[in-house]
Amino acid sequence: MSNLIKVIVMLGGLVSSALWAGEEAARDTVVGVVDSFRTDIIADKAELANNPELLAQRIDKILTPVIDFDDFAKKVMGKYYRRATPDQRERFATVTRDTLLKTYGGSLLELDPDKIKILPLGPQRKGREVKVDVDFQMADGSPLNLNFFMEDYGSDNWKLSNVVINNINFGLTFRKQFAVMMQQNKNKIDAAIDAWKLSLEKKS
After folding, report:
1. For residue 119, what pLDDT is reported?
2. pLDDT tens digits for 11-35?
3. How far apart are CA 37 and CA 63, in angstroms?
4. pLDDT in tens, 62-75
5. What is the 3-state secondary structure (H, E, C) of the chain?
6. d(CA 28, CA 35)
7. Which range of residues forms the domain containing residue 110?
8. Residue 191 near residue 185, CB atoms below 8 Å
9. d(CA 150, CA 148)
């Protein structure tokens, strides 16, 4: 093997190792979130079930470091994001964050802490996202499969960019729902945000 080929092989190995290390860092972020669900949410479900404000605070503490709600709002608003004022964008992000934490937080209390499995990383598609699969089981025995799509914001600072729950793409679903609300409210963004908040609250 010539020296040039040896160098190429060595560099290829280094690049592959770096990419794999980055993907593992994404998985490690999900591991940290899931472990926090176990220790800070599920373990105290008897107390948190009767204290929704405390539950929301704990979920906020766990998820806020790994979710860019401003970016999430941009993706959900889609083409309407460019038309929105800075205040409307901020309001949409805040409404989405606060309502989701309160609406979906209670479902975490139904997870079986002994039936949570973070799967090894599988083959990844080309792009900026790394998919991390986690299998949960609810207290009633029903399965729950989550695909966490993580994006590197730099220096291995991985954040959740989308989630698929039992094959339902929540990012895409929310985007379609907001588009419908814009149409129903004659493309008035403030009215659509109000409708969006009511829609999320009804899911509780």
Report:
1. 92
2. 333 233 334 456 889 999 999 999 9
3. 10
4. 988 998 888 888 99
5. CCHHHHHHHHHHHHHHHHHHHHHHHHHHHHHHHHHHHHHHHHHHHHHHCCCHHHHHHHHHHHHHHHECHHHHHHHHHHHHHCCCCHHHHHHHHHHHHHHHHHHHHHHHCCECCCCCEECCCCCCCCCCEEEEEEEEEECCCCEEEEEEEEEECCCCCEEEEEEEECCEEHHHHHHHHHHHHHHHCCCCHHHHHHHHHHHHHHCC
6. 10
7. 3-202
8. yes
9. 6
In DSSP terms, 143 is beta-bridged to: 137
Q: Can you read off the two tokens belonging to residue 95?
A: 């409404």
The amino acid present at 190, given as its one-letter code, is: D
Mean predicted confidence (pLDDT) in 99-124: 84
Largest CA distance in the chain: 70
What is residue 81's predicted lDDT score, i.e. its pLDDT?
94
Structure tokens, 30: 């999900």
Domain harbouring 99, CATH code:
3.10.450.710
Distance CA 123, CA 112 (A): 28
Please tell me the predicted confidence (pLDDT) of residue 106: 81
Could you give the number of structural domains in the chain? 1
Query: Tokens at residue 135, please?
Result: 């299998």
Which amino acid would we find at residue 104? Y
Partnered with residue 138 across adjacent β-strands are: 111
Q: Report CA 80 to chain centroid distance, whole Å.
A: 21
